[in-house]
Design goal:
- This protein is mostly beta strands.
- It has one domain.
- The chain has a five-stranded antiparallel beta sheet, with helices on one face.
- A hairpin with a 6-residue loop joins strand 3 and strand 4.
- The radius of gyration is 13 Å and the shape is globular.
């Protein structure tokens, strides 16, 4: 299981033009995440366990599972 940062091409609550979602996936790498999404046939959705960060240097806390629509994703990066 790996953690990813999804940069979404849609407004954030704060009013920013884009926002980021941090999520954990059953995929172990970015390559595997892309492969799994392509195998679904629709290439549209990926399920992740959303992680909220409590500010810079703050603790991470789980926020339940979400589905991310890949048509709204500008980029995906493995989180460190």
């Amino acid at each position: 299981m790996a953690r990813f940062i999804f940069t979404m091409n849609m407004p954030a609550k704060s009013g920013n033009a884009v926002h980021q979602v941090v999520g954990e996936s059953a995929a172990y790498s970015l390559r595997e995440l892309v492969g799994l999404s392509n195998m679904s046939g629709t290439n549209t959705w990926v399920l992740v366990d959303e992680i909220y960060r409590d500010g810079p240097g703050g603790d991470d806390r789980p926020n339940g599972q979400i589905a991310i629509n890949l048509t709204h994703v500008g980029k995906i990066k493995e989180a460190v």
